[in-house]
Amino acid sequence: MVTIWYGLLGLFFAAYLVLGGYDYGSGLLLARGGTDRRVVLTAVGPFFLGNEVWLVAAAGILFGAFPMLEGELLAGLYPAVALALAGVLTVTAAVQLRSRSLAGRPAWDRAIIGGSALAVLGWGAVLGGLLQGVPLHADGHVEGVGHVVTPFAAACAVTLLTLAAVHGAAFLALRLPGSGHAQTGRRLVPWALAAVAATTVVGLLSARVRDAVQRPAAAVPLLCLLVAALVVAGGALARGRPGLGFAATSVALAVPVALVGAATWPYALVSTADPGASLAVVDAAASGPTLRLLTWLAVPLVPVLLSFQVMSWWVFRGRIDGRAPVYW
User: Fold this and answer.
1) Might you give the EC number(s) for this enzyme (predicted)?
2) Res 33: pLDDT
3) DSSP state of 271
4) 248: which of 90, 169, 232, 325 fits an S-S bond (Cβ 3.0–4.6 Å)?
5) Buried/exposed code over 41-79 (b: 16+ C-beta within 10 A; e: otherwise)
6) How many domains does the chain have?
């Protein structure tokens, strides 16, 4: 049961990165200019707040099913988590406040762009921090916060930023008429591939990452899948197939979560200070009765969440036009 709940935690966080990723990717592309920013936000509008529910659900699983991991994760990766949440809150507030004042709209647009960058950079640093380990001691104390600031964590943050930008372009190509966003996405794919390659090299050169990765044989196929997804996305966008391109970029956003989980298994947190202090998944989980209670609660709630997501995509499927409701 512990493995199932750990898989659910990864699944929900991956779903958040995929769904919230095109929100933040679209926000990043507002910096391009030359297009009606309200049209871009209208394309995202029907899904924006619903996508953030997956982050709330993932946090609920973390707090309820893995209380030990929650405490050590927030302590060990506090700066990266704080950066990500600051970005999420900034985007949420700016999107809903930009239409309150015509004069202040440019400032709120800049806040959307900056908040989107903060969110994906922060989550990328969190994933990088998990993959490189934290200085966790046997008494459960994490020493300092400077360990988060490493070349590998920075490379992971930049990589997730490029993946979100490509994902946002693929989403807008799917939702908006014209081929401009598809071409933007195609041009961004080489940058994303370069970021993935650079992060891989930095990871291989990092002794911390090499020591923290428990199963390199599981990480390599997932890394190849990430590269393949980006290549497929670039080809699909170039051929005018945004649906396939969006599916491929969705895979690319989900793979990093699976890679971190598979590479560090059976540990939830790998200690760089004392290998014996590493927090195993089974030790991070709540008690058996608690997990059984959570299972009974999840059985009706998870299908409802999935049904809502499918319904929203079905209702608002296709490209938007002049009759689409304006949100912000």
Assistant:
1) 1.10.3.-
2) 66
3) B
4) 232
5) bbbbbbbbeebbbbbebbbbbbebbbebbbebbebbbeb
6) 1
